[in-house]
Design goal:
- It is built from nine helices and nine strands.
- By secondary structure, it is an alpha+beta fold.
- It has two domains: about 55 residues, Arc Repressor Mutant, subunit A; about 170 residues, GAF domain (Beta-Lactamase, 2-Layer Sandwich), CATH 3.30.450.
- The strands form two sheets. A six-stranded antiparallel beta sheet has the order 6-5-4-9-8-7, sandwiched between helices. A three-stranded antiparallel beta sheet has the order 1-3-2.
- The longest helix is centred in the last third of the chain and has 21 residues.
- The N terminus is likely disordered.
Length: about 240
């Protein structure tokens, strides 16, 4: 099922066997089980994600968040021309719910559904800065992974950085998650909590003007307002 979902298109038995490394007989047996569960559908010789998965995913708060944010993000990406990310937090990592990019987006080592250490990313710091003290201290009590030479891995230095995020309302990543890549991020506030964050990623040899940062701030405020207006559920 992951192979079909990751491809974003219908696949044949032979293609699924090749992607998963399973013998065709085993792959066929698994596919039949997934079809019975409604997780997959078959159309001719091709297999695709089943309707039941869309029904289930729509009940997941993160999917409701993504749906509410998508229009606003498309408008922002059209304005800035840079790659945008929407992410939420799970434990001490950010999970990417959406990535809207340009022709350079393949150079950015992020994928929808993938995760990164929160402290190394702008979008992660945008949410870390608003965590309850006890939860933040729990994260800082564990070693902070160093992804590049610029990653802030010292807890005291990270706390200083997060205080700055609270003051500015904006978080930055200066080649901390990946070389030659910067980003600026802003939290999405809903029911008093930073439930997500949106970031603009751009090459380190480029600059982001104040208007783009202001547009990011406005976008995140609008997403938060949309969540409140729609009374969407949130597990947090």
């Amino acid at each position: 099922m992951n192979a079909v979902g990751a491809s974003g298109q219908s696949l044949s038995l032979a293609e699924l066997s090749r992607v998963t490394g399973l013998p065709k007989t085993t792959a066929h047996r698994v596919l039949q089980q997934l079809i019975r569960l409604g997780a997959l559908e078959r159309e001719g010789d091709l297999y695709r994600i089943g309707l039941q998965m869309f029904v289930l995913s729509s009940a997941v708060p993160e999917m409701s968040l993504r749906a509410a944010a998508l229009k606003r993000m498309l408008e922002l990406q059209n304005y800035t021309g840079h790659t945008l990310h929407l992410a939420t937090m799970r434990d001490d990592r950010v999970v990417y719910l959406e990535k809207i990019g340009n022709k350079r987006s393949d150079d950015i080592p992020t994928v929808v559904g993938g995760s990164f250490a929160a402290h190394a990313t702008g979008v992660g710091k945008a949410m870390l800065a608003y965590l309850p003290r006890a939860r933040l201290q729990g994260i800082l009590s564990h070693p902070l992974e160093k992804l590049t030479s610029r990653t802030i891995s010292d807890p005291a230095a990270l706390l200083v950085s997060l205080r700055r995020v609270r003051e500015l309302g904006i978080a930055f990543d200066d080649e901390e998650a990946a070389p030659k890549l910067r980003c600026v991020a802003h939290p999405v506030i809903y029911m008093g909590s930073a439930v997500a964050g949106v970031s603009i990623s751009y090459p380190s040899n480029a600059a982001l003007d104040k208007a783009a940062v202001a547009a990011l701030r406005a976008t995140c405020t609008s997403i938060g307002n949309d969540l409140a207006r729609l009374h969407l559920p949130w597990a947090g």
